[in-house]
Structures are given as structure tokens and as C-alpha cells.
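Hello K.,

You asked for the raw outputs rather than the summary table, so here they are, unedited. I folded two proteins back to back in the same session to keep the settings identical. This is the first:
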Amino acid sequence: MDKFRFLNWKVYQDSRKLTSIILKLVKKLPKEYRYDLGSQIVRAVFSIVLNIAEGAGKTSDKEFNRFIEIALGSVNETLAALDILKDTELLTNDEFNECYNLLYEISSQLGGFKKKLK
């Protein structure tokens, strides 16, 4: 087994890409939103990447599955926060759609992991 197998997974790479996009979007937020909502989005998107990595290091499928479920929850949390930003016009439709498409991909890939682990 590869020691750091997650580094080669598309879901991990897509999650890193999303993280980079989110960090750039949060920097553009007005200061009054950057701390509360911006910080929450950053924590949620970090949670996706970090739970994939941490779960990959677990020795049982049951343990790994728990981390995949946490990552999926963070996918939903990230999308909800972005939806709020879009509704309040702090995010353009194009920015939202780019993130939505990546979140959809990540969610599908994590769902595939869950099926494989069962």
C-alpha cells in the first residue's frame, strides 16, 4: 500500500483545487463578512481535503468510511455557504457555478468511495 495514497486520488486533487478557489474568493469578501462567513467557508473546505487525507491513513474500511461521511457533510456545508454568498450578491453566478461543479464532482467521487467501502 502506498504510504500517502491520497495524493494521487482525483477527489483529493479536486478538493485542493476547490480550496484554492475558495481562499481567493474569501479574500475578495468585504471585511464585515470575511471573518464570520468567510472563516466558516474556509473551515468547511479545509475539512473536505483534510478528512480525505486522514481517512486514507486509516486501517479499516469502517474507519475510512467515517471520514468520507464527514467530508461529504463538509461538501454540503461549503455549498450552503456559497449559496448564501450568491444570494447576497457577494459571489457571481460564474464563481458559484465553478464551485458548484467541483463540489458536485467531489461529492460523486466520495459517494463512489462509500460504495466501494461497503
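The second followed immediately with the same parameters:
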Amino acid sequence: MHRIFLVTGRPGVGKTTLVKKVAETLYGRYLIRGFITQEVREQGSRIGFKLMTIEKALGRDGEEDWLAHVSLFRGGPRIGKYNVNIDAIDNIAIRVLEDSLRQDTDLIVIDEIGPMELLSRKFLPTVEKVLDSDRVVLATIHIKCREDPRLRKIVDRKDKLLVELTLQNRNQMYQIVRHEVEQAIRRFRKR
């Protein structure tokens, strides 16, 4: 019986799209909180990522801020060519996750548990609190999760289902993940 659903896969395979689609399908029937990290492109080139509340990601009122950008936030931490805005992680992602634990949230969405987010010292302890709660969690996790001891602890949990998304299985995986997440919500809601 799984309560935590982790989606991993290579960059660009559709992890965020899958999680967003599942959340959109279930939104309104269940109380869903969390955040999505959306890539931003200009003239065909990726210039960064925006971190947005699930409400904002689904086209409703919500918050967003730059998580990382190729030219903004210089002088701060970097991952590859991106300057990372730790304030967005601390002020949006952390707050939304903490709020979700104080409410009767049915599903908590975390997109993503990866190198940029881990730059915030508050991020991993907050994610661990969420994972240790009694809430159903749908999260994306970096492809190298087994190589990072901090992330290996998460993927080694017994109460999780780890799904590796590929170009070949992503349409089928959406149906499976949506079904499994909804079943978990129903099971844990009755407690």
C-alpha cells in the first residue's frame, strides 16, 4: 500500500507534465497543495525555471517566482548555467509544504526534489516532514536520486512507489499514477 509516489526520469521526458496532469484531473474533488517547477523558454532556448503554487500552475490564483535563471540572481549559487533563487524555494515551496501539513490536504505535490531545491537548507527537512506525515504525496525526484545519499533515503522508503518515466511509457504511466494516487487518497481519507 503506497502513500508516496515518486516520478523520476531523464530531463524533458515529461515528469512535470505528468504530475501537473494528475493534479489537474483530481483538483476540485480533493484538496491539493504543493508546487510545480515549470521551464521557461525564450525563442526556443530554455532561460530558466519558475516555481509556482499548484493553483497558479493550474491557471488559478496563486504565486510564482523565478527558481533559476541564466542571467538573474548573479552572485548566488549556480547549477549548470542557471543562477538559483533560494528565496523562491524558502518563500513559496517551503511555506506551501508547511501550510499543507496544517490543513486537511488530501494530496501534496512536490515538483521537484532535485539539486536546485536542495540548495535551500530548509528544503530537505521540510520534505522529510511531509513524507513522514500521513498525507498522500506525488513528487518528482532527480534522475540521479540513487547516487545522492540524501535522496537515496527517500527512494529507499517502504511506503513509496518509484516510477521511472520514459518516452515509451509516459502515456501509460499517467493512467497508472493517476489511478494509484486517487486510490491512496481514498484510503487515507477514511482514516
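Residues 41 and 47 are 6 Å apart (CA to CA).

Happy to rerun anything if the numbers look odd on your end.

Regards,
P.
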